[in-house]
DNA sequence: TCATGTTCTTGACACCGTGTCAAATATTTT
DNA sequence: AAAATATTTGACACGGTGTCAAGAACATGA
């Protein structure tokens, strides 16, 4: 066996970085290969296809992201948790990969827009999976809040609502890029779900 | 002047149909040319580029769509109007072009996902424009409702919230394709904005 | 040490999509 | 009828994805 001349995870990180910044469509395997100091053919050998490479990079991201969201959802009052959750959400698709920042551009895989615009059903599935898991996190938080009397409503419906807003924010971000407006919408959403702040 | 051998508007309709069904990325000018019985080069001559063609087709769609939304927003009680609005929204990105149905696939330009995944800033702008105009329609409806005592809240904030949900629904639709769930979210949103139905 | 097998790498190739261009073509105008 | 003008047509360049065969690097067993 000849050993691989590059690090699998390094490539995944480099690839995701590019996908995030320039979009899946806008990133070619040549770009990634150049950045990673690897031959394009080697990428095909190691990952099979651009899409498969994207999927692996995406799964990696999804894992990190979920952990960060969970952390945001586990501090203080229910209102604080939801605020932190929405803050992180907005920050995330405004800035880049959760851990290391990537300042300028906004990603789009948060939209699940991959499918139809270049990727197939697996990417859609992966995205759906992430959304489901985030929804479960929020619902659990709401349920716990309900037990503590911080919320009286349907946790499942409210969680779904919040997730929907979350995804909508991603779209608006791409359309307008107006962060203050996004934060207003987020605050308004929390008020709607939990009741106005001053009541 | 040699006269054009095809109808400008026919091509626009055919093109949008394909973009809607297969995505912008998934549709080549060859596809459109074949469908329209036109030479590919003629399309470049007439429209300049794939993107320009898309933009024209999109503007056409946006106009029709806005009219349909406005109609939905102008019948009956405020709750009925918003319900009709969300119904049309869901139906729209579930079925196809508003007037003539296109049953199977779901479009994605409703996401403004165009940018980054193949299209540039003009497409983003066009999308942002559509969203703005829809927001204005909803806000006007809410304001009118407020004057009639059917709503007491901030019309601007509520409209923005509804539009955000709307865009989020588009994302969820693409992720899950679960229409009943979408309608539940929509109903829940109306309850949040107007107050629960039975109160 | 050397041969062998396995895996990775490398470069060439086919294919498709976008976009450009010049030559040919069809009308209208003079 | 000739000129002017816009459209059509086919060839071309370019870049991206994906495939393949041949070469290269290592592990193992003799």
From TrEMBL, chains A, B:
Q: Which UniProt keywords apply?
A: DNA-binding, Transcription, Transcription regulation
The superkingdom of the source organism is Bacteria
Q: What Pfam family is a match for this entry?
A: TetR_C_13
**What InterPro entries would the database entry show?**
DNA-bd_HTH_TetR-type_CS, Homeodomain-like_sf, HTH_TetR, Tet_transcr_reg_TetR-rel_C_sf, TetR_C
Does the UniProt entry include the keyword DNA-binding? yes
Q: Which GO terms describe its molecular function?
A: DNA binding
Q: Which residues bind DNA?
A: 28-47
- Residue ranges constituting the HTH tetR-type domain according to the UniProt record: 5-65
The answer to whether UniProt assigns keyword DNA-binding to this entry is: yes
What this protein is called in its record is TetR family transcriptional regulator
Naturally occurring in which organism (per UniProt): Bradyrhizobium betae
């Amino acid at each position: 066996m000849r050993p691989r001349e590059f690090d699998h995870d390094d490539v995944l990180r480099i690839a995701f970085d590019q996908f995030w910044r320039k979009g899946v469509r806008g990133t070619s395997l040549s770009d990634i290969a150049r950045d990673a100091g690897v031959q394009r053919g080697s990428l095909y050998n190691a990952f099979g296809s651009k899409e498969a490479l994207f999927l692996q990079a995406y799964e990696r991201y999804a894992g990190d992201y979920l952990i960060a969201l969970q952390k945001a959802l586990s501090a203080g009052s229910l209102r604080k948790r939801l605020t932190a959750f929405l803050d992180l959400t907005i920050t995330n698709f405004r800035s880049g990969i959760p851990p290391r920042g990537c300042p300028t551009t906004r990603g789009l895989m948060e939209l699940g827009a991959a499918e139809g615009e270049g990727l197939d059903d697996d990417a859609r599935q992966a995205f759906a999976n992430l959304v489901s898991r985030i929804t479960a996190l929020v619902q659990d938080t709401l349920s716990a809040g309900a037990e503590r009397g911080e919320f009286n409503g349907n946790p499942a419906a409210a969680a779904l609502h919040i997730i929907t807003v979350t995804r909508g924010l991603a779209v608006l971000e791409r359309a307008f890029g107006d962060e203050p407006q996004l934060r207003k919408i987020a605050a308004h959403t929390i008020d709607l779900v939990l009741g106005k702040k001053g009541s």
